[in-house]
């Protein structure tokens, strides 16, 4: 009697789902493999993502392609200085026939919401979006309306354009699971882009490779990934190290004005588990925690003016954090 063949990574539900999704997104967006993997993690843990990059790096196309590949309802909101909260969450519409008010739900009632150039709208719009991100609900006319499940906000912003922008408050940036930095594509990817789309006006077609029920079922698999007590202590030590670096010290240079919040600890825990799941691993390792640490922490720490003057970046400080905390054996 022959024994069954051992399962390969592509046979496991996590890696198989991730490969299907990446293949469909790759029809429209070349490169950005790490960013696509982080977006898959966000889907699995239900976390929002802030995408930052120069214009023309396909941030909007990437999010749209993700929604198409997932087969989920997708809405795009272009944030502008004159945008109103009702343009995002909806409003009450008056009916002159019977004098009643009927709720008109806004574009935020979708599975994947693209908040394009999110830092171009004032505080009132940000506060309306904040309730949706945190509470998974919207209040219109005193009535609460639950948002669909799954629900993710994927926001974009330009790192170099500051005129007519409103910096996101720390309370809102802390709600994002990741802050992802998009870079220019490699020479090979850019050349392939020319070969595929340089001589045609047709847009690439991305088909659904998954759906909402499958995603919700996969989340149960993420919950089954084991995190050893030593790994839990390690990721907690990483977060607490950022707070220690913000404490008053005898040295002249204090790198951080404030450290990461407890929400960062949860985000690091959940995202490292999801990364293990899509890699086909049964437990979290220190290297997985280190892989997602920068994406989880970079928007949750605040550099001091002295650190910025000294040329330090959030990535450099996070590298110091990883070097300072002993890795469990």
Protein model, in words:
The chain is an alpha/beta fold and 329 residues long. The chain has two domains: 9-217, 3-Layer(aba) Sandwich (Rossmann fold), CATH 3.40.50.300; 224-324, Orthogonal Bundle (Helicase, Ruva Protein, domain 3). The protein is built from 13 helices and eleven strands. It has helices at 13-25, 33-45, 59-70, 85-89, 123-135, 170-173, 187-197, 212-223, 229-244, 262-278, 286-297, 305-309, 314-324; strands at residues 48-52, 74-78, 90-95, 100-105, 112-116, 137-140, 143-146, 152-157, 176-181, 256-258, 302-303. The strands form four sheets. The chain has a five-stranded parallel beta sheet with strand order 2-5-8-1-9. Strand 3 (90-95) and strand 4 form a beta hairpin. Helix 8 packs across helix 10, helix 9 packs across helix 10 and helix 10 crosses helix 11 (286-297). The two termini are 40 Å apart. 38% of the residues are buried. The model is unreliable at 1-8 (pLDDT under 50).
The separation of the N and C termini measures 40 Å
Number of helices: 13
How much strand content do the residues show? Answer: 15-25%
The radius of gyration computed from the alpha-carbon positions, rounded to a whole number of angstroms, is 21 Å
Number of domains as seen in the coordinates: 2
As laid out across the biggest beta sheet, the strand order is: 2-5-8-1-9
The CATH class of the largest domain is identified as Alpha Beta
List segments where confidence is low: pLDDT < 50 over at least 5 consecutive residues. Answer: 1-8
| Number of E strands | 11
What structural category do the secondary elements indicate?
A: alpha/beta
Assembly of the depicted chains: single chain
Report the order of strands and helices. HHEHEHEEEHEEEHEHHHEHHEHH
* CATH homology-level superfamily of the largest domain: P-loop containing nucleotide triphosphate hydrolases
Helix content: 40-55%
The biggest sheet, with number of strands, parallel, antiparallel or mixed sense and barrel status, is: 5 strands, parallel
Overall pLDDT confidence: 88
Name of the CATH architecture of the largest domain: 3-Layer(aba) Sandwich
At the fold tier of CATH, the topology name of the largest domain is Rossmann fold
